[in-house]
């Protein structure tokens, strides 16, 4: 059976975990205890996602995805490809917008308290900073909804249609 290679699978699952964590911490930060350093950890996870995305895109360009079954209707292939493309865009734009909006503030930016991460050259009041702040929240919620759809689609293939779509990623 055609399936994603080991590196692609490892990146998919490690990043899925990190992204879900980033979303839960981002959406939940107000409700979580103040002394948990929720936002510094959220930022560190997000920056990790950004770095891994660069590796993943290079790997993906060098290793095309395995073909989907010819029996799958075209609308479904189109929907899957559009969702995956959008996910790659979100994997870059979400952490980048977070990094931009954080760069105008005075709070330190570091990676899991291990080393400092440079701030981007932006200033309070820049249009880009406002756009990043608005976009970060809106895109985060859209992504969370699309991820639920993506998981639903994977489970539908595995348990209802019983085809090999899910096994290609396991
Ligand atoms: C996979 C990457 C990321 C995802 C999916 C993500 C998603 C989110 C979401 C959904 C929220 C809640 C929105 C709100 O209530 O305002 C949030 C908040 C936040 N994110 Fe991210 N984020 C990511 C990466 C980053 C990065 C890399 C940084 C900074 C370096 C960052 C900084 C922040 C900050 C400071 C907040 C709190 C905003 C507030 O004051 O409400 N995020 N994030
Ligand atoms: C934050 C969570 C997740 C993100 C961001 C994500 C992202 C992606 C992306 C970008 C692809 C396309 C890979 C490529 O062709 O390069 C993909 C494929 C896939 N994902 Fe996820 N994923 C997530 C979680 C999950 C979960 C929880 C499941 C299973 C329950 C899952 C099942 C699959 C499957 C089966 C494929 C292969 C689809 C195909 O062959 O066309 N994903 N995912």
Topology:
Elements (H helix, E strand, L loop, with lengths): L5 H23 L9 H25 L11 H30 L6 E2 L3 E2 L10 H35 L9
Antiparallel strand pairs: 1-2
Helix pairs in contact: 1-2, 2-3, 3-4
The structure holds protoporphyrin IX containing FE (HEM) (2 copies).
One protoporphyrin IX containing FE (HEM) binds next to helix 1, helix 3 and helix 4.
Main location: membrane
Family: Belongs to the cytochrome b561 family.
InterPro entries: Cyt_b561_bac/Ni-Hgenase, Cytochrome_b561_oxidase, Di-haem_cyt_TM
How far is the first residue's CA from the last residue's CA?
A: 12 Å
| Low-pLDDT residue spans | none
| Rg calc | 18 Å
**Residue-averaged pLDDT, rounded?**
96
Number of helices: 4
Shape descriptor: elongated
**Beta-strand share of residues:** under 5%
Helix content: 55-70%
Q: Let me know the number of strands.
A: 2
CATH class, named Mainly Alpha
Describe this protein with a few key phrases.
66% helix; 4 helices; mainly alpha; transmembrane helix; binds protoporphyrin IX containing FE; 2% strand; single chain; 170 residues; two-stranded antiparallel ribbon; 2 strands; Fumarate Reductase Cytochrome B subunit
